[in-house]
């Protein structure tokens, strides 16, 4: 069995320099091209070219800001498994992905399951989301909700 630090992502078609650049960007997405170039031993122009290439290929999907939810009044984080009638799966997913409380939404294996994460200011806001929005959507068969108690790790993108 491999140790965690020995694990390699299979079929990743980028070279070692790109991996170094991505690793540094993962830790500090605001680093300048000049400083990044110094860390990996290439010029600012070379770093910029590499990053633009990774963006064009879709390796880097976007740059973003990670906000601490509790600092902006978000105190409830919950995961939902939503069972949907198959013929309504796409319409339910399209509706849910537009809701600002929904932070992630996935189609999972099983009988038309959507797995969703949502954030709310308090339990009452989550209850309103469930009763007024989620339960009211045509095609929703059942909802299983689990409230997050403690976050140990949150993956923002893929770390190399």
UniProtKB/TrEMBL annotation:
Residues passing through the membrane, by range: none
Gene3D superfamilies given in the database record: 3.30.70.920, Winged helix-like DNA-binding domain superfamily/Winged helix DNA-binding domain (1.10.10.10)
Presence of keyword Transferase: no
Location of the HTH asnC-type domain: 14-75
Keywords: DNA-binding, Transcription, Transcription regulation
A Pfam family it matches: AsnC_trans_reg
Molecular function GO terms recorded: sequence-specific DNA binding
Superkingdom, taxonomy of origin: Bacteria
The name this protein goes by in its record: Lrp/AsnC family transcriptional regulator
Organism of derivation: Peribacillus asahii
Phylogenetic placement of the source organism: Bacteria, Bacillati, Bacillota, Bacilli, Bacillales
């Amino acid at each position: 069995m491999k140790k965690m630090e020995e694990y390699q992502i299979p079929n990743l078609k980028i070279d070692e320099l790109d991996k170094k650049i991505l690793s540094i960007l993962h830790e500090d997405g605001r680093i300048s091209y000049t400083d990044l170039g110094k860390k990996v031993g290439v010029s600012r122009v070379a770093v910029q070219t590499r990053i633009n290439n990774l963006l064009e290929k879709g390796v880097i999907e976007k740059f973003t800001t990670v906000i601490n939810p509790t600092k902006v009044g978000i105190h409830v984080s919950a995961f939902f498994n939503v069972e949907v009638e198959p013929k309504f799966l796409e319409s339910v997913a399209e509706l849910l992905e537009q809701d600002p409380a929904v932070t992630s939404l996935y189609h999972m294996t099983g009988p038309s399951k959507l797995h969703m994460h949502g954030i709310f200011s308090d339990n009452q806001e989550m209850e309103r989301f469930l009763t007024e929005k989620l339960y009211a959507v045509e095609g929703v068969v059942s909802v299983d909700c689990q409230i997050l108690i403690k976050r140990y790790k949150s993956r923002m993108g893929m770390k190399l």
